[in-house]
């Protein structure tokens, strides 16, 4: 028995079979043989044919063990190489998605993937008007297969937001792309929100994600906004409603977006963390220095530090108030400096059919900004161009009254009427003329917009910016602060603004 113990101890991981030949038939003795590491026994009198058969069986076991060990070592090598490759791929993936980019001051984010690659995604972008747009999404499952779809989502979301496309346009393009590329039974639940601080509004589209929570300054939940749409990649575009909700939001309030991994995290008794615990946590830790680290600790304590089986994502968007566009901006990076002034002119005309079918603003912005390289002036140019265009459309052709926006439900009513009247528009057109020329140390961009409507009283639509907290009438006053001049003529049907930029260093 002692020899067997020493043989097994000395053999380490190798399988050295030991067979006992014994004259004992006592069950306790036979059990002792196996208990010290013996692999089989043969009771005397024994026959050579039986001994040989047992030896062959033990040698087959030894050979299988050697093969399994070799395969284990090879698998470990492959696993190590795969992990290293995945780590490199994850760094490339993260860099391409821009996760390391600086978050806007209104946004905080926590992401904890269950695997190297996360099925949850968080993207943010600044609209040409200066609003912050955030996408939080969750692909079916997690890991590499779920992360692959993040590439086209990132490209579509950021490029379309940068060009001024609406949330509705982004949703439709995302759905069309994902419907074409995702395999059966895989889809993309997502939320897109856009904070529009100058109007104290939140635009929201929720497709298959948990409730969006809006809390007050004390962390109490004041509104829960559930999903009203299916996840993307399931239905064709003609069956989805891509219009976002228009939600009022007060300064200081916070919006929380999260994936189901948080509320479905389970403790050892398989009880889920749940919506109530999350809301209680947000209320209790509203003023915590590091809300997200505290939540991660809270989840770890709840799950008893068990292995995470789904991705955790939480995003906070806070309404900090409106920053006027004419405030000083940080200098653009050297690579974004405008190119030397070019002389060019472009004119586009949109009839009623075109105005119903497309939003021409993204096209006009791309033409204006990319041609001259005016990325650093994008927000200001968008405000000027959008104000002139929407005045021509809303007041010139559709005869909408901006005072509708003053009532609690005014925004929804205003944009509902715009959609209805635009759908019914049979006649009318808008012409936009853009021209650019050198001006001093920089250039001058002239924007002229003319509509075929009966005109409107421009002065009645204009209010001073001083102390004005109204939700309407501020646009033209703001345009005047951004441009060298703004002139309306032809009874309000023709507007022309001159935006001047300079390459001269600031004094």
The percent of residues in helical segments reads: 25-40%
Low-confidence stretches: 324-335
Give the count of helical stretches: 14
Quote the average pLDDT: 85
Q: Which range does the strand content fall in? A: 15-25%
Please provide the count of β strands.
17
Please state the CA-atom Rg, rounded to the nearest Å: 34 Å
Classification by helices and strands: alpha+beta
Distance between the termini: 94 Å
Major β-sheet annotation = 5 strands, antiparallel
Please list the strands of the largest sheet in the order they lie side by side: 3-12-11-8-9
Q: Write down the overall geometry.
A: elongated
Description:
The protein has 14 helices and 17 strands. The protein has helices at residues 2-11, 27-35, 48-97, 144-147, 150-162, 167-181, 260-263, 274-284, 291-302, 352-357, 361-372, 378-397, 410-424, 475-482, and strands spanning 19-22, 40-43, 107-112, 120-126, 132-139, 188-196, 201-207, 212-215, 221-225, 245-248, 254-258, 312-318, 344-351, 429-439, 442-451, 485-489, 494-502. It starts with a helix and ends in a 5-residue tail after the last strand.
